[in-house]
Amino acid sequence: MTLGFVMLCHTALDRAAQIARYWATRDCPVVIHVDKRSPNAAAEKLRADLADLENIRFSPRHACEWGTWGIVAATQAAGSVMLTDFPEVRHVYLASGSCLPLRPVDELRDYLNDRPRTDFIESVTTADVGWTIGGLNFERFTLRFPFSWRKHRLLFDTYVELQRLLRVHRKMPAGIVPHLGSQWWCLTRQTLSAILEGPEREEYDRYFRKVWIPDESYFQTLVRQVSSNVESRSLTLSKFDFQGKPHIFYDDHLQLLKRSDCFIARKIWPQAERLYDTFLSPDAASEPRAEPNPGKIDRLFAKAVERRTTGRAGLYMQSRFPNREWEQGRTAAPYSIFEGFAEVFENFDTWLSKVAGTRVHGHIFAPDRVEYAGGATIYNGCLSDSAALRDYNPRSFLTNLIWNTRGERQCFQFGPKDNQKIAEFVAADPNAQISVISGAFAIPLFQSNRNFSDIRSEAARLQRVESEFLGILRASNVKARVRIWTLAEFIESPMEPLQTLVDEISPRAMRRLTEVPRMVDLAGFGQFLQNLRNQGMQPVLMGDFPAGPDLPSASGRRARPYLVK
């Protein structure tokens, strides 16, 4: 017997029993520690299930809570039993109840026999650690951590800040150089004995009891004191995400695990029947294997993390909702927003749909209902025309609309009467093309027969709303393609801006416009604006309209858009 396993178990004890039996029946003694917080009945059943194996032992139980000393105490207890009861063991492998051997035990035993004096344990100085956060890579050794980070987070954080304020600095034991690394190691008997039976153990234990996450530093630090041949890596395939949570392997990770050539992997989903059946079968020895290399699959894990955090452009899922702005793209495809065009031109949506070959909606953020193209009440993805459902989350409504219509460009009207909560979102969306004829909101008021005092009040309100929207579009952080004309500029020369917009919507068509849609009758509009001024309202967004009956002349200077980006 040259190899023994120490197993730390707390859940899925039936799977732990399966793995322990696998190792024990292949001449590898196993010492099992069951978390004191696990039900006694489950622990006793585990003992009963393995009672027929003479080379399995159980160590005294400790409460193992993440980040606390209990995990180290459990490892010490199980390791001591291994050294005492199995003197033939030359290497001790620390594993968990959720570990799964990926290669036959004989291959691992031969690998270790070729390296009889090598300790496999990740051990990195605090200055070189890149996975810790909050400044607690070195402070975990100089401050005290009597509170649980998970159970008493407020007390934990408060006590840390208090110690920083008081400039608390714990004295380290003489000769100690703090190191960090993975909890899962494989140590020689000589090294483990030196750590557990050394004369300074009491001093070291007293110090590390108040270190944060000591299971990632106790053995990793002390191994440097007693070992002359440390290979700073773990033989266990264990991957963590960007939040420090371990990746869980499922049945569809079978080929991925085989590709790693690693001896053992964790964490395995307890219901991954295919993984357990494949790797614990006798046929697992038939495949040739190379040097263990967890880095071979790092690229795939990096892609998984990227997909989890950024996802696909315009697709929102539950895992990313708590962390807004993680997405790599706000929407899934380009779309166009027109403000003021439906007021200036008759049947603008019909004309644009014809010349650009695109889907043109009305005011999809109108206060009463969503004005889908063709008057539809239900659109792609079962999106209702209900204003209440839309306004519950306008951002999700728009992203769903664009996602469910990928492959067909969507265009819609917008204006100061519409729900403005979407304004900042579309302004920061690179997929958005926003075209605005400022002041066009006054045209329907001009055409109405309402009381003029009501018209003046409504015009003032709409101007304030549109001014705020234009301010958002002119901000420095805008990523949308934005063009702004005043009403006077646009009607002076409408052909050029319309041609530009059509070319951007359908660049492959490259058709020259021969005519623009029919413009509404604006005779007397200048006098209307003057009447607003006479009533105390200052219309500033429409541009320079003469007070007389004549419209701005097209013979003047050519209009140029206010190009934001």
Please describe what this structure looks like.
This protein is an alpha/beta fold and 565 residues long. It is 37% helix and 13% strand. It contains 22 helices and 20 strands. It has a 6-stranded mixed sheet, sandwiched between helices. Helix 7 (189-197) crosses helix 9 (218-226). The protein is elongated and about 105 Å long.
Instruction: Quote the distance from N terminus to C terminus.
Output: 72 Å
**Helix coverage percent:** 25-40%
| Beta-strand fraction estimate | 5-15%
CATH architecture label name of the largest domain: Alpha-Beta Complex
How many discrete structural domains?
A: 2
Q: Please work out how many helical segments DSSP would assign.
A: 22
Helix and strand content put the structural class at alpha/beta
In total, how many beta strands? 20
Strand numbers in spatial order across the main sheet: 14-17-13-18-19-20
Q: What do we call the CATH topology of the largest domain?
A: Spore Coat Polysaccharide Biosynthesis Protein SpsA, Chain A
Q: Rounded to an integer, what's the Rg over CA atoms?
A: 35 Å
Largest sheet: 6 strands, mixed
Shape: elongated
Output mean pLDDT: 87
Give the CATH class of the largest domain.
Alpha Beta
Taking pLDDT < 50 over at least 5 consecutive residues as the criterion, the unreliable ranges are: 554-565
